[in-house]
Amino acid sequence: MGLLSSLRPHRRGALSGGGGGGQWQWSFLDAVWAVFLLAVVIFLALVFTPRRGEPLSASSSALAGATVPPCAASEVDLLPCEDPRRSSRLSREMNYYRERHCPARGEAPVCLVPPPRGYRVPVPWPESLHKIWHDNMPYGKIAERKGHQGWMKQEGSYFIFPGGGTMFPDGAEQYIEKLAQYVPLKSGLLRTGLDMGCGVASFGGFLLKENILTLSFAPRDSHKSQIQFALERGIPAFLLMLGTRRLPFPAQSFDFVHCSRCLIPFMAYNGSYLIEVDRLLRPGGYLIISGPPVQWKKQEKEWAELQEMALAFCYKLITVDGNTAIWKKPTEASCLPNQNGFNIDLCSTDDDPDQAWYFKLKKCVSKVSLADEIAVGSILKWPDRLSKPSARASLMDNGANLFELDTQKWVKRVSFYKKSLGVKLGTAKIRNVMDMNAYLGGLAAAAVSDPVWVMNVVPAQKPLTLGVIYDRGLIGVYHDWCEPFSTYPRTYDLIHADRINSLIRDPISGKSRCDLFDVMLEMDRILRPEGIAVIRDSPDVIDKAAQVAQSIRWTVQVHDSEPESGGTEKILVATKTFWKLPLT
Questions:
Q1: Is the pLDDT of residue 425 over 80?
Q2: Gene3D superfamilies given for it (predicted)?
């Protein structure tokens, strides 16, 4: 018998002699049960009806028809895995406390992150490279502290970005021209770059006109929202700290690595950070360091050690121009082992240099297969490299054929999205795009002629195909979608999820590692108001996704897939509504 039936008032077996035949009669015990039931109902109402700003518990998110409440106004920049309230209690050794540290499952707030008061639809690209709305991130600390160096300044209702930086206060364009004397930045030879400690990413932003795609990163720090400013400008950027772990990128992927006063202590911890840079840098690629310790007062020892370690790696010093040093990595396999003063040797044969998701830094240099074939100068120039399978793709079973089939499939799908589903790729509505399940980067390749950039995410529990994506001249990261992504709220215009259920399912057991609701709630956090989500999967998964979408205030349309897909999939196209907290 259920709880409600057990609490019903009992009917007497005999009628009262005083009349009232057929009437209910209550005993003292019945009254006690009724009071108890009322107390239970009131208690449940208090527990499961959140006040504004109070997140639902994880279990209550499953309530049928429930609308997820807004987070408190203080959570407009919620970063679940980079929360100083958690990280401040952790070790400072090797900046461990500034790396990703996510809440345990069930501890993350279940609420919708609100936009700040005064938020507007962002300034469209390419105008956004130079100015953004002040109220979309009303933080003036960088403008106050770095305005004299040309980082940014406030003018009326805008933040203006003159294009400067600490080491290039006269502007990124002049700085890029200086570097181009030594580095082939204008020939198509270089396509992918990594800018470490990027500030507001003006260096990467101004390299875009040279068809160079630079992924800029910086940690959450005292300046407040460097990466958020970069993404608001429409520049590829990622929240990240070089600390105790490998960075979440594949080996030998970046055509150049750049540090402009990034303040990374390359020689600390027996050179662990320079070893990590070497892992990421493509053979024949360029390492550019501007600022400390290069010919820097009181850092002569660090500068001497940096040169000595680069020499141990057989890097060629191209130039030292003032406080800027440029090296070229050899195109052949590592020259280690050799006699060096740092006791650095090659890693063992069981080391996989592409393993980079929560993977501890190693104090050895990874061996690399195909070094000659994927080196700068051997790999095709841009844009030819986009459409041709690289030598790294050949390491996959039937890799070249899979590459061609995937490329053709996504050309058809992206065309279908534009023509039949009304997805506004190619317009000013969409600039920052994320592919949550990128595989070989087919979607990004198909959209390359549109004014967008794509963050290609390869799930960490799936085959590590991200190196092939970088060989194409595209960028991306490893990630596990059962955790929040390392970006600020409201940073992407379009998020695409192919086979979304595979992102939460264990590839071996087939069991779910987290909930579809959790993944879509995270999509909502990083999607801009009026942004678009496109989700592909089986009809039953799409039905579930549509229910979740309604609970997080998205407007939803479900479509049949392309004719060539055989009707085995449905496509959900959802728009995040532009809602605001009520005034208090």
A1: yes
A2: Vaccinia Virus protein VP39
User: Torsion angle, CA of 440/445/451/457, rounded to 10 degrees?
Assistant: 0
Hey, what amino acid is at 356?
Answer: A
Q: What architecture does CATH give domain 391-576?
A: 3-Layer(aba) Sandwich (3.40)
Q: How confident is the model at residue 39 (pLDDT cuts 50, 70, 90)?
A: low
Residue 368 has pLDDT above 90, yes or no: no
| 298's tokens | 């009181």
Instruction: Determine the residue type at 151.
Output: W
Domains 164-339 and 391-576 share a fold: yes
Place of tokens 């030292």: 320
d(CA 439, CA 434): 13
Q: Name the packing angle between helices 268-280 and 300-312 (round to 10°).
A: 50
337: Cβ contacts below 8 Å, ≥ 6 apart:
345, 346
Q: Which residue has the higher pLDDT, 197 or 212?
A: 212
Q: Which two tokens stand for residue 340?
A: 């060096």
Write out pLDDT tens, residues 465-488: 999 999 999 999 999 999 999 999
CA pair distance 485, 120, nearest whole angstrom: 23
Residue 47 in 3-state DSSP?
Answer: helix
Sheet holding 475-479, edge to edge: 475-479, 453-459, 432-435, 492-498, 527-537, 570-576, 554-560
Reported as type and span, the H/E element at residue 529 is strand 527-537
Strand partners, 455: 434, 475
- Sorting pLDDT into bands at 50, 70 and 90, what band is 558? very high
> Is the pLDDT at 572 greater than 50, yes or no?
yes
Alpha-carbon gap, residue 282 to 226, rounded angstroms: 27
Which 3 state secondary structure label does DSSP give 425? coil
For the CA atoms of the chain, what is the radius of gyration?
28
Q: Average the pLDDT over each of 218-232, 234-248, 487-501, 537-551 and give the range with the smallest value.
A: 218-232
pTM of the model: 0.88
- Domain spans of the chain, in order of start: 164-339, 391-576
CATH code, 164-339: 3.40.50.150
CA distance 343 to 366: 15
